[in-house]
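Protein in question reproduced for absentees:

***
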Amino acid sequence: MRNNLDIQHHSKYFFTGSFIIILGLALYLLYPYSASIAASILLAYIFYPVYRRFKVIVRNRYVAAFSIALFIVIITSIPVLFVANAIVNESVQFFYQVREIDLSDASNTISKYFGQNIDLNFYFKDILNNLSISLMQGASNFILALPQKILDLFVMLFVTFYLFLDGKYLIHRISDALPLKAEYKESLFRRFSDVIFATVYGVIITAIIQGSVGALGLWIFGISSPILWGLVMIIAAMVPFVGPAFIWFPAAMSKLLAGDNVNGFGLLFYGLLIVSTIDNIVRPKIIGSRGKMHPALVLLGVLGGLKVFGLVGIVFGPLVLAITTVFLEFYLSEKHDIKSKAY
C-alpha cells in the first residue's frame, strides 16, 4: 500500500515537472511570434461577428475565415505603409529645406560677443550628416527586416484563420478549465469583452479627434492640403511612437524656416498644447468609462503594454490590468463571504 502511494506521489511530481519543462519550451518556441499571435487573438475577437455574418453569405466556413483574415491583414498593412510613405516624403523635403539654412549672421554675432571664431554652419552640417547616416541605417535595417515582417504577417494570417474556425471551441475549453464559480467566469469574460471594445473604440475615436483637430490647425496656420494631412494624422495617431506630431511638427518647422514665424510658432504651440494632449485625456476617459477602469490605470496599462507587447500593447496592457483587478475583486468577495459565514 505504501509503495503504491509512493508511486503515485512520484508520478505526480514527474508529471508536474515534465509539464513545466514542456510548457517552458513551448513558450520559448512561440516567443519570437508572440506579437503576431497576440495580434491574431485580438483581431479574431474583434472581427468574429464579421466572420460569422460573412459565413452565412458564402456558406463555407473555410472560405469565410480565410477571406476575413486576408482582409484584416490588408487593412492593417496598407494604412501603416501609407503613413510610412507620407512620413518619408515629408522628412526628405524637410531635410532639404533645413540644409539651405545659412547661420553666418548668427555665427558673426556670437563670435563678436565671445571673441572667438565660431562657425555654426560647420556644426549644423555635421549634425545633419550624422542624422542622415542614422536615417540611412534605419532604412537599411527596415529593408533587412522585411522578410521577418512578411513572415510575421503570414503567421498572423494563419493563426487568425484558425481562430475564426476553432476560437469558439477554445473559449469553451478555457472556460471549462477555469477553477472559478460560474458567476465569476461570466464576470471575467464580460470585463474582457468590455475592455477590448473600449480600448479599440477609444483608439479609433481618439485618432479621429486628433486628426480632425490637427487638420483644423493646419488650415488655420496656412498649411496646404489640410484635409489630406488630417487623414494621414488619423492613421498616424493609431500607430504608437508615430502619432500626429510627425505631420504637424515638420509643417511648423517648414513655416519657421520660410520666415513665417507667426504661423510657424502658432502651429508649434497648437500642436504641443492641443493636438498632443488629446491622446492623454480622451483615450483614458473613453476606455475607463466602458471598461470600468480608472483613467490613471488605463494610461499606465497603455504605456506599460506598449513597452512590453509593442503595438498590440495598446489593448493588452489595459486588459492585463483589468483582469488583475477582476481577480482582486474575486479574492475580496470570497474573503468577505468567508468572514460572513464565520459570524
Summary: The mean pLDDT is 76.
